[in-house]
Design goal:
Layout: E1 2-5, H1 13-24, H2 28-38, E2 45-51, E3 54-63, H3 69-77, E4 88-96, H4 105-114, E5 121-127, H5 131-139, E6 143-149, E7 157-163
Parallel strand pairs: 4-5
Antiparallel strand pairs: 1-2, 2-3, 3-4, 5-7, 6-7
């Protein structure tokens, strides 16, 4: 496995989009626009895990700032835990191709993303019924900060965080 920086102009970008859309069953065009927009956010950083010339996994995040859609959504929900919103990054996306799961791809990607961050903490959200993801993040030192988070979707999410 090799880990390469995520670049919207890179040769693996379209493959990453295809993997994301396969995992989450969403429209590729809308996701491509979103990923390109996110890549312009402050302190954006992302990586791809490449195996057999395929994108086995991806991760990215950026510094969370007022005015960003998810920052403002999280800030409203974390009103009693405001310290989590100070000097934090958002781990926005992490996905691993099912054919490559169980090989440490996600662990390597998270470690790479978090290793040199300037922020003091990291936040992420995941669906409350995604027990595998929750267990993965807990094993990596994250803790559950809040439950009952509904980010404009019918599914309940939880907010998790970790001090860096």
């Amino acid at each position: 496995m090799i880990i390469v920086p995520y670049r919207v102009e890179g040769k693996y970008f379209k493959k990453m989009i295809k993997l994301y859309c396969r995992l989450f069953k969403v429209d590729p065009l809308g996701m491509e626009d979103q990923f390109k927009r996110h890549s312009t956010y402050p302190l954006f950083e992302g990586y791809l895990a490449i195996m057999d010339e395929r994108v086995a996994g991806y991760i990215y995040g950026y510094s969370s700032r007022k005015g960003q859609y998810y920052h403002d959504l999280l800030a409203r929900h974390l009103h009693s835990e405001r310290e989590w919103m100070k000097n934090c990054m958002e781990l926005v996306e992490l996905g691993v191709d099912p054919a490559y799961r169980g090989r440490g791809v996600a662990k390597h990607l998270v470690e790479r993303l978090l290793q040199n961050r300037k922020e003091e903490r990291v936040l992420l959200t995941t669906r409350k019924d995604n027990h595998r993801a929750i267990a993965f993040y807990l094993s990596g030192g994250f803790k559950i900060i809040r439950e009952g988070f509904f980010p404009n979707v019918p599914h309940e999410y939880i907010i998790m965080g970790k001090m860096l």
